Structures are given as structure tokens and as C-alpha cells.
Amino acid sequence: MPTTTERRSRDLSTTFAALSDPTRRVILERLSRGEATPGELARPLRISWPAVTKHLRVLERAGLLQRRRKGRNHVLTLEPAPMRDADSWIAAYRRFWEGRLDALADYLERGISKDARPGPPKAKTDRSK
């Protein structure tokens, strides 16, 4: 049985893999404006029907969309939970790197004193006399 961390890692990998394809991102962008049928999603894509259904299966398996029947039609809606999880993961690393970069900036600012700034060279004195 996978641990919570392992399951979260697997879910994030599935989400990022689904988001890696530009066609799937177009589908999700369209669904962000409201529900749609597979045919409505396929119309602007200019790809084959089997390719559309493959992309929809990947998104559905990743939990990024929900399918329900409405009469004879299938209606798809965006499921935001996996995107929120991915955003939380990215935000944690953003905070980490922003903190590291801020610390580096502080270090560099402290390390550059007035004497170390570029300017005319100081005259050397001859101590051998």
C-alpha cells in the first residue's frame, strides 16, 4: 500500500504528464469556460477523433476532467483539484527558491563595501625604503 507521500507524488506525476501536451492544455482551457461535449472540444482542434478521445482519456485518468451523461451525450467538466495540488507543490518550491535568491542578494549586498566598489586604483606605497 503506497504511503500518502508516494500517492501524492504519483498523482502529481500524472497531472504534470497530462499537462505536458499542448492539445490537452487547449482542452482544459476551453473547459475552464464551462462544460462541453467531446464533439465541441474536438471541433477547433483539427486532429482525428481517435486522437481526441485519447487526450480525453489521459485527462480523465489524471482526474482533470469529469464525464457525465446527459441523455445520449457525454458532458465534460473541468475538475480543478489536481491543478490545485500541482499549484501547491509549485508554490512550495517557489517560496524555497525565492528565499534562497533573497539570501543570495543579501549576501552579495553585504559583501560589496564602499571600498570594494569599482573606482580608480589606489596608489601603492613602497615599503622597502
CATH architecture of the domain at 4-82: Orthogonal Bundle
**What's the CATH class of the domain at 4-82, please?**
Mainly Alpha
Overall form? elongated
Q: Mean pLDDT, nearest integer?
A: 85
**Terminal Cα span:** 82 Å
Give a count of the beta strands, DSSP E runs of length 2 or more: 2
Largest sheet: 2 strands, antiparallel
The CATH homology group name of the domain at 4-82? Winged helix-like DNA-binding domain superfamily/Winged helix DNA-binding domain
Give Rg in angstroms.
Answer: 27 Å
The main sheet orders its strands as 1-2
> What is the number of helices?
5
**Global structural class:** mainly alpha
CATH fold field value of the domain at 4-82 = Arc Repressor Mutant, subunit A
Low-confidence stretches: none
* Series of secondary-structure elements, N-terminal to C-terminal: HHHHEEH
Strand content: 5-15%
User: What's the helical proportion of residues?
Assistant: 55-70%
What does this entry look like structurally?
This protein has helices at residues 4-19, 22-31, 38-42, 49-61, 81-111; strands at 65-70, 73-78. It is mainly alpha-helical. It has a domain at 4-82: Arc Repressor Mutant, subunit A. A two-stranded antiparallel ribbon has the order 1-2. The radius of gyration is 27 Å and the shape is elongated. It starts with a helix and ends in an 18-residue tail after the last helix.
